[in-house]
User: What shape does this take?
Amino acid sequence: LFYSDTLTSVCFFYLFFVSYVVFFLFSVLFSFFFFQAEDGIRDAQESRGLGDVYKRQDLFATCKDHLRGHDPAVLRQVIVLLEELRYCLNEEFKPYLPSLLPLLVRAMQEDTSPDKQCVHLVLSCFRMLGKFLEGHLHVVLPAVVAIAESPESGERCREQAVYSITEFAKHLSTMLDHAARCVHCIIRLLDENFPVSGANGSSKSQQGNGQSRIHSIHVGCLQAAGSIAQNLADGFAKFLPLIKPALASRFGEGSREYRQAMETICGAVLSAKRHTYPASSRQLARVGRGETVPASTPASPIKRPNQNERQRFAAVESVLVATNRS
Assistant: This one.
């Protein structure tokens, strides 16, 4: 009798121990996989679930499909959609940039239309992305500099490309790695003579001296040089022997523009403190659309369509409808 009671107690203890171990292991595995799945979709905001992640992927796939075309009207809507996604996703927008930026650059490079609408749209998109281009400037900047240096791009596109370089210098700390490319582009543009319209509407070429009329591209180069100097601080000192003669040759050493530019550049070099302009996503989007630019800086002719709050995502709907039809 004693032996059977002992055996029964051992069996009950064994079953209890095994059940406890199995429950513990199951709890650990469940917690591990559950929180791993949650971390994949969680950010600073409240988790929106896997359904929104899949919808987001569909939207970006739609954008990529339409970026491969060359229709400016469709490209305009895609860029508006990207702008809204950038607002909504904020930091979650960054993982999609490595696949989007090469398509945007390609759309800009393959634009053969006379008015270069795709080039204007893509440049405005780059300015709208702002700080999100940090770490991706090596993809975007060579194409922007090529637009600025190419006479075939047209004066308006070249003007907007120089303005984009200025905005990159204002908001991106990685500009230090690409300063030489930008400075040499500015010097080449300052040395170039652009035709200007005379009083009777005729086109005349500048003579390249301090008394000649200054083109708006030259003014943009002046602003770009100042922004790059403020970004690099004392790192810009090595470019002074190159930029100073170019500015003096174009504007004249006695001109107000030359004195102001040299004050800005030399002040930035002597301060030895890098300076950038932080901006919110809404401010950068307005800069991208050319809405909040200085009076001396040209605004982009490509504007976002006027939309009220109820029609804010009409662009998204139009792109999705076009996708369903195709």
